[in-house]
Write a structure and sequence with these properties.
The chain is of the alpha/beta class. Helices cover about 30% and strands about 30% of the residues. An eight-stranded mixed sheet has the order 1-2-4-3-9-10-11-12, sandwiched between helices. A two-stranded antiparallel ribbon has the order 5-6. A two-stranded antiparallel sheet has the order 7-8. Strand 1 and strand 2 form a beta hairpin. Helix 2 packs across helix 3. The two termini are about 25 Å apart.
């Protein structure tokens, strides 16, 4: 079911529960769209109310982005952090809209992000920890430049992260993802980290592992 009435276009899969359902929001990667991760929804716990969101910046000839990734001779490949912060805030506002509009539990919100969507899931959770609970962070890393406020002053006791990465990822180096666990540990944030022998994608065993992780938390 497609819905355009909220600030970001999205697809929804309704929960088996008529009220107070755990909410899962999916954030796709660069150059993809809301249909990509939504393909997982049929295999995820039926009590989840699932929303797959479309990023705001259209790309040519197809797909969407949460923020621009630029290529030039001086800087090489670099991300537009200002655009990323705007998308971070768009997603945070979307969470507020969704918990008001849909029959979900505002205290049980999970994010599932892949690649650029993963980077933003980290940014949203670490900037606004009161809005989310569980984060499935696939094939991304923590970009500290797009986190709002002072990390040391926030209460992260509610957060729990499942992080995974492909050991031969050709898009985001695995070494970047390997810095996630020490970073979260330093802030005393609950988390797990797994690697799989794949490139920039989600291996079947990766999917089964994060599905079980989610099942035990919703």
């Amino acid at each position: 079911m497609e819905n355009k009435s909220l600030s970001l276009q999205h697809l929804i899969r309704e929960s088996s529960l008529s009220s107070n359902a755990p909410l899962l929001i999916m954030l796709h990667g660069y150059g993809s769209d809301e249909n990509d991760l939504f393909s997982f929804s049929a295999e995820l716990p039926e009590e989840l109310f699932i929303i797959s969101v479309k990023a705001p910046y259209p790309m040519q000839p197809f797909g969407n982005a949460w923020y621009a990734i630029n290529f030039d001779n001086e800087k090489g490949k670099w991300s537009d952090n200002e655009q990323a912060k705007q998308s971070r805030d768009l997603i945070a506002n979307f969470i507020d809209e969704a918990v008001t509009k849909y029959p979900v539990n505002k205290n049980n919100v999970s994010l599932l992000g892949f690649s650029q969507g993963c980077i933003l899931s980290f940014a949203v959770a670490l900037s606004f920890p009161e809005k989310v609970k569980n984060i499935v962070a696939l094939s991304g890393y923590v970009n500290q430049d797009i986190i709002a406020g002072n990390l040391k002053e926030k209460d992260y006791s509610n957060l729990d992260f499942y992080c995974s990465h492909g050991s031969v990822d050709q898009v985001i180096p695995v070494q970047w993802a390997q810095q996630t666990s020490p970073f979260l540990k330093q802030l005393n944030i609950k988390h797990s980290y797994s690697e799989f022998p794949v490139g920039h994608g989600v291996a079947p065993q990766n999917f089964y592992e994060f599905r079980e992780w989610l099942k035990s938390r919703v």
